[in-house]
Specification:
mainly alpha, 25 helices, disordered C terminus
Length: 589
């Protein structure tokens, strides 16, 4: 009887979640040329047989995963909000299924599944309603985690049982890699987990001895004695995600070369243009700029830095009028205003693109490369001769400004804001907002791509749609508030459990076999979460007046990590309460 009641509740919760998704209208921002509209227009161009469309300043700036997601959505004939909801549900099912060896209670697994599909990251306006790549981050991270952890937790089982998880991560990892340009933060977890999985496949349950030397010797013996064909097969399955990611990179680069004359997946983190922005960022301006400008973390490249760069680069100096246009006529100095009338943060990157286009570039990728490569050669000579000096800072990314030791306080402050956003959902909310379309692009074409019949715009239909969705907005707001109350409790329980059971692991050898996987996964996810927040915080400090906004909008990938940690913590506590944790007969594999 209890099982039937739970099944009924479970089915109702899923149906209700789908109804929420299809009730709330989507937001389409076609004025966002480098963001929302870019992926939409690229999908339309592919449907029209024109690859990514006419070459321009934004053509190669973003990964293509969301573009292809839109195409799959289109051919599914399902509306965008319904399709996205089903993908989120699929990702939640995958991670819960992957964790089955450590979450053995089926009711807890079911509750964990519901906990994930109702996550605020899948309900808040800026992630779930806006047709933008951020809406996919939650599901993409869960799918990758499911593949990685599914393989790790089944490392001592047969190849047949590991194969589905290998296939999953082989598909999910390249998709995640090309969803955003900062996906490298998940790579260390994949590498470490892959090593641990391979180690488990080799060692199985064989004793390794009591010392490190004995363990290494015994591992080497087992490795030599293993069936080489099976060993190679297992290894290839484990590194298949990297192979497929590289293959996808080569394929996309080749297609881009055929269409635009440039062999690359994107020109934001690669190509000579990326090198140009890196060179400009690293020019030390402390000798010729005021202290207020030189020490301002919101200013990556100052006016005088541009002038100094032109002095050592005759090719760059040819664009002097265009550079003056950036400050005098373009929108970028006012995008995120900073003091001293300078360009804020990475706004100079987008300003440079439009300036070069005005000056005759961005008609052909090969021509661009030739010009940018020449400028870089001249800047390199300037660094070599001493005419230009490099900033005495530490750089963790070539595409963001460096930091000094005294800047780390600000980075940690931003990390704190990110933790609040991803654990307390401080800025997460849902409200109705109309779409924006451009006069030269029929809205019907965009709606047809998304399999959506109609949307209201900022000028028409807003009031009616707001009234129609009032109840749904209230329900979602209530759900988010529930998570704000419950999530910090779950997180404290999870972290507390990790500390307590880590002490138990150290003191009692009998508990290690059962606790090891929990604690390893805990530690891996927690470190990955902190690395991710550190990277976002490092970049975001250029906008001191937008700390809350940036650490909300750019930290969505932290939510699934935290929620999986919370789910594991509760599972560990429940298993201990049921007196099933420390039984010697219990094995996770």
């Amino acid at each position: 009887m209890m099982g039937r009641v739970m099944l009924g509740v479970f089915v109702f919760a899923i149906v209700f979640r789908v109804l929420i998704a299809v009730t709330m209208p989507i937001k389409i921002y076609m004025q966002a040329g480098y963001d929302d509209a870019l992926s939409i227009n690229q999908a339309l161009s592919i449907l029209d047989g024109k690859w990514l469309g006419t070459y321009g300043t934004g053509t190669l700036t973003k990964g293509l995963s969301f573009t292809f997601f839109l195409l799959v959505n289109h051919f599914s004939h399902l509306s965008y909000p319904l399709f996205l909801c089903l993908v989120n549900i699929g990702a939640a099912f995958a991670i819960v299924k992957a964790l089955a060896p450590v979450i053995k209670n089926k009711y807890l697994s079911g509750l964990g599944f519901l906990f994930l599909i109702y996550s605020p990251a899948t309900l808040t306006s800026d992630f779930s309603l806006r047709v933008y790549r951020n809406s996919l981050v939650f599901a993409a991270v869960l799918f990758v985690l499911a593949g990685i952890l599914g393989l790790y937790l089944r490392r001592k089982e047969t190849l047949k049982k590991r194969l589905p998880w290998s296939i999953l991560v082989t598909i999910a990892f390249p998709f995640f890699w090309y969803l955003r340009e900062d996906s490298i933060w998940l790579l260390p977890l994949y590498i470490v987990a892959t090593f641990c999985t391979f180690f488990g496949i080799v060692v199985q349950d064989q004793p390794l001895g009591s010392s490190l030397k004995e363990g290494l010797d015994r591992t080497w013996q087992l490795l030599k004695a293993a069936n080489k064909q099976k060993l190679v097969g297992n290894f290839l399955l484990l590194i298949a995600p990297l192979i497929f990611t590289l293959g996808e990179s080569l394929l996309i680069s080749k297609v881009n070369q055929n269409h635009y004359g440039i062999f690359t997946t994107n020109d934001r983190t690669k190509t000579s243009f990326a090198k140009l922005t890196e060179n400009l960022i690293q020019i030390d301006n402390s000798d010729y700029d005021s202290e207020a400008v030189a020490e301002n973390s919101g200013i990556w490249v100052s006016k005088k830095t541009f002038a100094e760069a032109q002095k050592v680069s005759p090719t760059f100096a040819k664009y002097r009028k265009g550079i003056e246009w950036i400050w005098n006529e373009s929108i970028w100095p006012d995008a995120w205003p900073v003091k001293n009338d300078e360009l804020p943060g990475d706004m100079f990157v987008w300003a440079l693109r439009e300036m070069f286009k005005q000056e005759g570039l961005y008609k052909d990728g090969a021509a661009n490369e030739k010009v940018f490569k020449k400028i870089n050669q001249e800047l390199a000579e300037g660094f070599k001769s001493g005419e230009l000096k490099k900033k005495k800072m530490f750089f963790v990314s070539k595409q963001s400004n460096g930091k000094k030791p005294e800047d780390m306080g600000k980075v940690f402050s931003y990390m704190g804001a990110g933790i609040l956003e991803t654990t307390l959902y401080k800025s997460y909310q849902t409200s109705y907002g109309g779409s924006i379309f451009m006069p030269d692009q029929p809205a019907e074409v965009v709606l047809d791509l998304l399999n959506v019949e109609s949307v209201s715009t900022l000028k028409k239909g807003m009031a009616a749609e707001s009234k129609r969705t009032k109840v749904t907005v209230w329900i979602i707001t209530a759900i988010i508030w529930i998570y704000r109350i419950v999530s910090p409790v779950l997180l404290l329980v999870s972290l507390g459990a990790m500390v307590i059971f880590t002490a138990g692991y150290i003191k009692n050898k009998k508990t290690r076999k059962v606790l090891a996987d929990y604690l390893i996964i805990f530690l891996g996810l927690l470190l990955t979460y902190l690395v991710y927040l550190f990277g976002v915080s490092w970049f975001a400090t250029w906008a001191p007046n937008a700390k809350g906004l940036f650490m909300f909008f750019y930290t969505g990938a932290g939510v699934p990590l935290i929620q999986v940690i919370e789910l594991l913590g509760v599972a560990l506590v429940v298993r201990n309460v049921q007196n099933k944790l420390f039984e010697s007969k219990v094995s996770l594999n």
